[in-house]
Amino acid sequence: MDLGTIHNVYFIGIGGIGMSAIARYFAANNKVVAGYDKTPSLITKSLEELGVTIHFEDAVKNIPISFLEKEKTLVVYTPAIPADHKEFNYFVNNKFTVLKRAEILGKITAATFCLAVAGTHGKTTTSSILGHIMTSVNATSFLGGIAENYDSNLILGGDTISVVEADEFDRSFLKLSPNIACVTSMDADHLDIYENPEALTESFVAFSNKVSDSLIVAKGLPLKGLTYAIDEKADYKAYNLRIDNGKYVFDVQTPSSEIKDIQFYLPGRHNVMNALAALAMAEVYGVSLEEIKKGLSTFKGVQRRFSYKINSDNLVLIDDYAHHPTEINAVHNSVREMYPEEKVLVVFQPHLFSRTKDFADDFANALNKFDDILLLDIYPARETPIAGITSDWLLSKIENKQKKKTQKNNLVKDIKNSDAKIIVMLGAGDIGVVIKEVRNELLKWNENEI
After folding, report:
1. Cα gap 201→203, rounded to integer Å
2. Helix, strand, or coil here: 183?
3. What whole-number distance in Å separates Cα of residue 428 and Cα of residue 356?
4. Is 1 exposed, middle or buried (0-12, 13-18, 19+ CB in 10 A)?
5. Is the dihedral angle over the CA atoms 61, 66, 69, 75 positive or is it negative?
6. Are 144 and 302 in contact (CB under 8 A)?
7. How far apart are the first and last CA of the chain?
């Protein structure tokens, strides 16, 4: 399909973070865009403000009439939709051009010089940092999160260079044709898709084989490419890492040069690794180290990635997307690094029954490290319940006695009952919406306490 001949683009699952970036792209390129999503959100609202028509009931009658013209309409869907989705099946049965999100992203970027960020953790932050740096060469970046600098998951530039997240879910990243790529991590995840961790590794190997120019990998991963690491021998090495007035300052040795006193404001050594991966990719592309240094110093972060919702002297509320044990551990390490003497309460909403089942012991061990623990019900997303896999079951595995199962309507009360100064709310479900009400209530309470 020639994208230039397309008049209409219809999205099934338009509110997804990756889907909405592509919807923004087509809207910016003067296509008529519409779509379906399960529930309204801030993302769907922002798309509607761009003139995108969206409805929230899966019914063929809701599809705008102009989108029923087969020759003029492209349909894009997320693999997270159920197999019995009425609108999806209508388009398939009537032989419309129907493509997965990764397939259309592959087509959009096929004619560009493509920089792709892969990995089970860190790809959204890394691609957002890279996209910010690559504005200096007018790249267009499709992100899996809302970059604070742009208040968007799309950084719109020219049509010759692209930055994309290479998502391993459903083996989507095998639809891409990257020129430069990095792999940040390869921890077991998405075992509802992959039969075992070995199958996941094989998928990453297949992705690495698609890279035409340069592959950059975190040191220790079983892939061949340029390596990056902190304080150990690698092609790109960050060292002399220190914290100065709320920011990281560090030096980097590249294969052929050195740059001193890079300033970077995101907390956690894992974010320094993300910054280092972005630096390596941009430098391999040809961006100067001084330009990269400037980009790192002005990067403001990604929404729901260690985002401060309250940051006062006597109360701190942090929002993070962490939904895998490795990510929870990274958040914990960051919190302890920033607030070594303070008591920390974690509120966690498990995401997916299958992930909870597969990593229950690892979740319990990660959560156990916090001082106080509040556990919400499992957010099902695309799944149906699995017998015996509940938040109560996960809670029973946590050894820390300062733990409690809670509900959304009791959450503020339970937080207030803790004497923790630092509250961290984690998860990939609707906890990202719940935190807005929690923040408002805690701000009122905090003012009264003062």
Report:
1. 5
2. strand
3. 13
4. exposed
5. negative
6. no
7. 62
Closest-CA residue to 194 (of 117, 120, 103) = 120
By CB neighbour count within 10 A (0-12 exposed, 13-18 middle, 19+ buried), where does 365 fall?
A: middle
Residue 155 buriedness (CB in 10 A; 0-12 / 13-18 / 19+):
buried
**pLDDT, position 188:** 62
Query: Using CA atoms, how far apart are residues 219 and 413, in angstroms rounded to an integer?
Result: 44
- φ, ψ of residue 17 in degrees (nearest 5): -65, -40
The answer to whether the CB of 166 falls within 8 A of the CB of 181 is yes
Distance CA 252, CA 276 (A): 8
* H or E segment to which residue 292 belongs: helix 289-298
φ, ψ (nearest 5 deg) of residue 375: -120, 125
Distances (CA, A) of 387 to 357, 390, 393: 10, 8, 11
Distance CA 443, CA 302 (A): 22
For the four alpha carbons of 334, 340, 346 and 352, in that order, the dihedral sign comes to positive
Angle at 308 between CA 302 and CA 309, to 5 degrees: 115
Query: What are 180's strand-pairing partners?
Result: 115, 214
Rounded to whole angstroms, the Cα distance separating 377 from 178 reads 39
Q: Are 347 and 415 a contacting pair, CB within 8 Å? A: yes
Q: Which of 185, 121, 164 is nearest to 324 (CA)?
A: 121
Q: What is the identity of the amino acid at 371?
A: D
Look up residue 99 and give its two tokens.
């493509």
Q: Which two tokens stand for residue 431?
A: 């906890």
State the amino acid at position 90 in one-letter form: Y
How far, in whole angstroms, is CA 81 from its chain's centroid?
19
Tell me the mean pLDDT per 10 residues along the chain, length 450. Answer: 83 94 95 95 92 97 95 91 94 96 90 94 94 98 93 94 88 90 80 66 92 97 96 98 88 97 92 97 98 97 88 91 92 89 96 94 97 96 91 97 96 95 94 92 77
Q: At 21, which amino acid appears?
A: A
Q: How far apart are CA 267 and CA 207, in angstroms?
A: 30
Specify the residue for token string 């974690």: 346
**Burial label, 26 (beta-carbon count in 10 A; 0-12, 13-18, 19+):** buried
**389: number of Cβ within 10 Å:** 19
